[in-house]
UniProtKB/TrEMBL annotation:
Its main location: membrane. Pfam families: Bac_export_3. The gene is fliQ. It is found in: Cell membrane; Bacterial flagellum basal body. InterPro entries: Bac_export_3, FliQ. One of its GO terms (cellular component) is bacterial-type flagellum basal body. It is a multi-pass membrane protein. This is Flagellar biosynthetic protein FliQ. Coiled coil: none annotated. The chain crosses the membrane at residues 16-39, 51-70.
Amino acid sequence: MTPTTVIDIGRQAIEVTLLVAAPLFGAALVTGLLVSIFQAATQINEMTLSFVPKVVAIFVTLIVAGPWMITMLTDFIQRMFSSIPTLIG
């Protein structure tokens, strides 16, 4: 196994990780932005008001995008396992 192969496998792993995490991060970002705008407009400074909607948004996003995320991860792992013989030899 050459250093180039190791770097390529690492790059693919980081890409899959970013793709899988992006919907959750996006949902948290949008929800946090909307709650912050709401808090600024109404001058309500309650910490649970920003935390609870983010948790709910991430949970809903996980339910909606969960099958796609699992498919991405299992496809990557299957590709890694199937390429073990070529990487060793």
